[in-house]
């Protein structure tokens, strides 16, 4: 599972580092080339609920194999795309299995694990995503700059193929529940706690993306760091993600709700410190490494959604990744808006703190509504 999410995480973020090269190769502007990234994110948002609903009755192992096969084929087709239009379409198709794979993989790992280690089992799915930020994205970005963006997608396809082979070899057959059906999965959308949890991710996670999107801009224009510091900061961010995923998964085993509250409170604090420390290199690098730990919110939200939908988990689990991509888009937009308004690049820290704090408020209201309704989520 981790090998597969390593490939998916690398494929999602690596284009950012070679965007100018891609634009020149295809004869388009850099902003137009950036729409290729948006196409992938749109595929994630659309594909997660669609595939989860259609595949509700499929054997979980078979569904994972189909999703990875689509990912591999999409990256191969991206590498062979003759022009901008074809690449745009292929990135949309490649994004379709993204959210569904993460959601189904988390369910499979949770079902295979001892209940007291469920959080760590779910967190293990995201190990590949965090390591991708430390190793996969920098290496494929360097390879793309040297060998071209087509070679980059070819390598990512090979990574995905390795993940597919390992799933086929190691993941046992796991039938869907006897009562599973598309209508039953869609029924979870009537539950308020599902929407409270998804809204928490869509808003609260935006704080991390708001800061992360403009981290390089802050380092170069506010901190006045030399160019080589930027890759160092990216690596520190990635290492923070690895540590946050491990620590957060252990906290999830104690209480998913507590893990969400602690992570969002930490994200709010770190975003404020980012704005305050932006002018000093060592303090801001320390904050950046801690900010990466906000990724702990991902397994916490994933597990929370499993708890509030014990009888129809696939759609809710996959929608978590649609929410994260909404957070990505909204966080990046808000950060750009405050910079464009003239508040300075470091102001993305204050905007990120506002989003993380708002996510914490939404989740707290959800817990209050659950308490007032007299319903307890199963332990």
TrEMBL record:
The chain crosses the membrane at residues 37-56, 63-84, 96-113, 125-145, 151-172, 193-215, 282-301, 322-343, 349-369. Pfam families: MFS_1. The keyword Transmembrane applies. InterPro entries: MFS, MFS_dom, MFS_Efflux_Transporters, MFS_trans_sf. Gene3D superfamilies: MFS general substrate transporter like domains (1.20.1250.20). Residues 1-371 form the Major facilitator superfamily (MFS) profile domain. Its main location: membrane. Keywords: Cell membrane, Membrane, Transmembrane, Transmembrane helix. One of its GO terms (cellular component) is plasma membrane. Signal peptide: none annotated. SUPFAM superfamilies: MFS general substrate transporter. It is found in: Cell membrane. It comes from the Bacteria. It is a multi-pass membrane protein. One of its GO terms (molecular function) is transmembrane transporter activity. PANTHER family: CHLORAMPHENICOL EFFLUX PUMP RV0191 (PTHR43124:SF3), PURINE EFFLUX PUMP PBUE (PTHR43124). This is MFS transporter.
